[in-house]
TrEMBL record:
GO term, biological process aspect, one: negative regulation of smoothened signaling pathway
Subcellular location, principal: cytoplasm
Keyword field contains Phosphoprotein: yes
Suppressor of fused C-terminal domain: residues covered: 254-474
Alphabetized Gene3D superfamilies for the sequence: Sufu, C-terminal domain
Family, as annotated: Belongs to the SUFU family.
GO cellular component, one term: cilium
Domain Suppressor of fused-like, residue spans: 64-240
Protein name: Suppressor of fused homolog
Annotated compartments: Cytoplasm; Nucleus
Species: Pheucticus melanocephalus
Keywords of the record: Acetylation, Cytoplasm, Developmental protein, Isopeptide bond, Nucleus, Phosphoprotein, Ubl conjugation
């Protein structure tokens, strides 16, 4: 439960409250980390010392469900000279270390990041006659914070979040998010480390897809050039009815398509509903217990396997190339994906995967024939994998959200792969690698063209390349939700 109250400022008598000589008497009432962030807010809003706040009634460190202690809400007058409209500015408190006493975050010193190293902000266009800020953005921020705390994966500028639902639960087309640096708030040095400010930017589905096909930073730059779609401060307007590509059709062809062709995609992997079968031997042949058979308990990735996947994902990528994170919670399991940022705990790591099978006992095995299975949302990303990644000499990984299965597509230019041109299908425990030549990728793109038209898609759908001994099936979600699929 959360409550809305005035009181964004420090308690009376606390440092920075302006109460004179008595201020030093109550330093414990106003935690130093909170004070540092509040100071940056006061710099921007000196006339709003006590903004409205959404506060967690039962703090996270006392067993409450909401990681953010507070979300402050300010009224920003914008900048008419820059065509920036008046809006509400939301700032979170809690992803960074507010207290420094290990109640929430481990204190690691002053030189590194404070807590997770960032706080979230959000800028929402103020509607005419609106006298108070809506509170739904605070719950949105709590949802993202819950994900960060549960997964220990952090965010960075350029990341995207596919939410698959209007951010305010209305009928809005704004159903996804990009993340970028807040245009006004500067990094803060606190006694517990540095805090930066990442702004949530609401986007339409078409804009999210463009960010996936190309990269988040490129789409953010386009949004900045279109005032009604964000403008220079990237303000979210939930009533925006057109995408940037409908507003300016030239942006798709002249900027996005050219960017994809030139740069490829920065998206190196996704959390997905996926599975694979080894068709090289009959299912009843269990002589090699390393094979993955549908309906049997899959082997788990050892710690060394997981590290190898991580290293493979890192090779040959741009700075912002990150695999996508798993869902925040069960309610979002069919939709939410996040572009991966540097993390304290890698998203590919399973807490139960630590050396269940000794690494040296699981040899890499070449397969003659494989069958890949994806749900529709994951399958729709195969053209992106082929065109935006493999044709640019890169790789792309599907990591199952329901187990330790992983499928990595690699091109001939990727180093460190255990799949080769001579043996293009290779498995190491539940991790399958598939090496595709450029010629075969071009053919697959032609055969898979209908994946780009999901509205005309009927499940199940099967694609087969017999001479390559490869089969791909696109199946309903229910197949993957059933443990005996």
């Amino acid at each position: 439960m959360e409550g809305v109250r005035p009181g964004g400022g420090p308690p009376a008598g606390a440092p920075g409250s302006g109460s004179g000589s008595g201020s030093a008497s109550f330093p414990s009432l106003f935690p130093p980390g909170l004070h540092g962030i509040y100071g940056e807010c006061r710099r921007l809003y000196p006339d709003q010392p006590n903004p409205l706040q959404v506060t967690a009634i039962l703090k996270y460190w006392l067993g409450g469900p909401d990681p953010l202690d507070y979300v402050s809400m300010y009224r920003n007058l914008g900048n008419p000279a820059l065509n920036v409209p008046e809006h509400w500015h939301y700032v979170s408190f809690g992803l960074s270390d507010l207290y420094g006493d290990n109640r929430v975050h481990e204190f690691t010193g002053t030189d590194g990041p404070s807590g997770f190293g960032f706080e979230l902000t959000f800028r929402l266009k103020r509607e005419t006659g609106e006298s108070a800020p809506p509170t739904w953005p605070a719950e949105l921020m709590q949802g993202l914070a819950r994900y960060v705390f549960q997964s220990e994966n952090t965010f960075c500028s350029g990341d995207h979040v596919s939410w698959h639902s209007p951010l305010d639960n209305s009928e809005s087309r704004i159903q996804h998010m990009l993340l970028t640096e807040d245009p006004q708030m500067q990094p803060v040095q606190t006694p517990f480390g540095v805090v930066t400010f990442l702004q949530i930017v609401g986007v339409c589905t078409e804009e999210l897809h463009a960010a996936q096909q190309w990269n988040g930073q490129g789409i953010l730059e386009l949004l900045r050039t279109v005032p009604v779609a964000g403008g220079p401060w990237l303000i979210t307007d939930m009533r925006r009815g057109e995408t940037i590509f409908e507003i300016d059709p030239h942006l798709q062809q002249e900027r996005v398509d050219k960017g994809i062709e030139t740069d490829g995609s920065n998206l190196s992997g996704v959390s997905a509903k996926c599975a694979w079968d080894d068709l090289s031997r009959p299912p009843e042949d269990d002589e090699d217990s390393r094979s993955i058979c549908i309906g049997t308990q899959p082997r788990r990735l050892s710690g060394k396997d997981t590290e190898q996947i991580r290293e493979t994902l890192r090779r040959g990528l741009e700075i912002n190339s990150k695999p996508v994170l798993p869902p925040i919670n069960a309610q979002r399991q069919n939709g939410l994906n996040l572009d991966r940022a540097p993390s304290r705990k890698d998203s590919l790591e399973s807490e139960s995967s630590a050396a269940i099978i000794p690494h040296e006992l699981i040899r890499t095995r070449q397969l003659e024939s494989v069958h890949l299975k994806f749900n529709q949302e994951s399958g729709a990303l195969i053209p992106l994998c082929l065109r935006g990644r493999l044709l640019h000499g890169r790789h792309f990984t599907y990591k199952s959200i329901t187990g330790d299965t992983a499928i990595t597509f690699v091109s001939t230019g990727v180093e460190g792969a255990f799949a080769t041109e001579e043996h293009p299908y290779a498995a190491h425990g539940p991790w399958l690698q598939i090496l595709l030549t450029e010629e075969f990728v071009e053919r697959m793109l032609e055969d898979l063209e209908d994946l780009n038209s999901p509205e005309e898609f009927k499940l199940p759908k099967e694609y087969s390349w017999p001479e390559k001994k490869l089969k791909v099936s696109i199946l309903p979600d229910a197949v993957f939700d059933n443990p005996l699929h």
